[in-house]
Amino acid sequence: MKIRKIMVIGAGQMGSGIAQVCAQAGYDVILYDISEENIEKGMRNIEKNLVRQVEKQRMNEEGKEEVLAKVTPSAALQDASSVDLVIEAVVESMNVKRDIFARLDEITPDHTILASNTSSLPVTEIAAATDRPEKVIGMHFMNPVPVMKLVEIIRGLATSDEVYKKIEEVTKAIGKMPVEVNDFPGFVSNRILMPMINEAIYTLYEGIATKEAIDEVMKLGMNHPMGPIQLADFIGLDTCLSVMEILHEGFGDDKYRPCPLLRKYVKAGWVGKKAGRGFYTYD
Ligand code: NAD
Known about the structure:
By secondary structure, the protein is of the alpha/beta class. It is 47% helix and 14% strand.
């Protein structure tokens, strides 16, 4: 069956970006969130991104309106009963994701593929909350979604080849590059990236350099487009902490121990750009 209609669950920074790129590729999209305020914020975010594309003359006004018309905001999970693919992008919590997948398993038609944008949680465990583990898969987009080309595609233990192929096709159709990886904590991207970010926060915690100096070293010295402390703010410090905890627990090795300073910022609610304040402050 061809995929025509997609529900994106979670209208935060990732979900709104995923909804946008799917709509731009011509899919009908439902953008669902548990918080009405975040649905509105997510829709505004999409519109803002499209306006920027019009200003840069990458799209005309008519194109912008067409894309916007393809995204329907929703506060009812029941609307998943009409979709061929769900892409879940809610908070990085196994309990929350398992609960959503169990409900989706009841609401969606049998053919519907259920994908998670988790950055690090085992797809196999999310799939086990459903009676269709062969149709559950990881689709790990990078932030910011409209800009970044990679989608890590994670096969759960039971994911079928047919489902893998369909998700590979959708990924290409939305202009992204699929890369296949197996289901282990942090997959490939965050297994490598997050310990580096955590180490950067340790160097700040131990007073080895200022945050600006740490970011400058990595930008000028390693040619990274953004320093690790700023990148942590952009990703969200809550997400960074969750990923480190999953690596720590998953491998049982203290080299993945989250930095206490990272914990402190999350406890303070200073979770990065999306909160207006992380290690840096934002308007
Ligand atoms: P976010 O905090 O910006 O958005 C999360 C959204 O989920 C919020 O709008 C919240 O209201 C909603 N939500 C929470 N519980 C819900 C529920 N039960 N039902 C429906 N909606 C619910 O977070 P984000 O940065 O967009 O991250 C979302 C997911 O994407 C996480 O799994 C994260 O690990 C993953 N991810 C994040 C990044 C990144 O750089 N931030 C990159 C790749 C993947």
